[in-house]
Amino acid sequence: MTDAAAPAKKNTRLNYALDYGPLLIFFLAYKFGGSESDPTQGPLVGTGVFMVAIAIAVAVSKWKLGRVSPMLWLSAVLVVGFGALTLWFRDPKFIQIKPTIVYLFFAALLIGGVLRGKAMLKYVLEAAYEGLTDEGWRKLSLSWGLFFLALAGANEIMRAALSFDTWLTVKVWGVTAATFLFAMANIPMLMRHGLSLGDEVPQK
User: Fold this and answer.
1) Residue ranges per domain, the chain?
2) What DSSP state is assigned to residue 69?
3) How far, CA to CA in Å, does 131 sit from each of 50, 91, 108, 127, 128?
4) DSSP state, residue 162
5) What are the helix (H) ranges across the chain?
6) Would you place residue 197 in the very low, low, confident or very high pLDDT band (cuts 50, 70, 90)?
7) CB hemisphere CA count around 6 (13 angstroms)
């Protein structure tokens, strides 16, 4: 049983690395690639490295997992597109808009699905939430849709009010922490709607 569980754990770690690794590399490249004499150098270096890192993440995902998640695909397309605009116009505002578009896309997808009677998360996460009822999937999809909508609004406020350095720090550490905490906060609701925990002792 331990051997069977090992690949799943490995894939989970790899998924996290593919989702958050390029963003962390962006942060590090920005921090160490900047110049006091040219305030735009750090964001431009970070953006260029970000584009390469997310392209590698897509290739690794396809190679190791046999698929590329919709979020990674969308992020890659937008990072390359807005990254190119950032480098061409030498304006980091373009790369800052990318998260807003990603968040709005998933908010529209999830909330729109609920309004049409479809829990969109069920189609991509069913194996990870064994036993969850249809009502649980509906609530989960709606809650994540609203969360993404809130993130889109927060990103626009931060983009307008904060320096690039502060915005990037909050994006890498603050948003990542908020996402993890939000996922944990959903667990009690999921358990009330049939979520099966893998370490539960089977009842006879």
Assistant:
1) 1-91, 94-197
2) -
3) 38, 48, 26, 9, 10
4) S
5) 2-32, 41-64, 70-89, 93-115, 121-125, 134-161, 164-169, 175-185, 187-192
6) low
7) 4
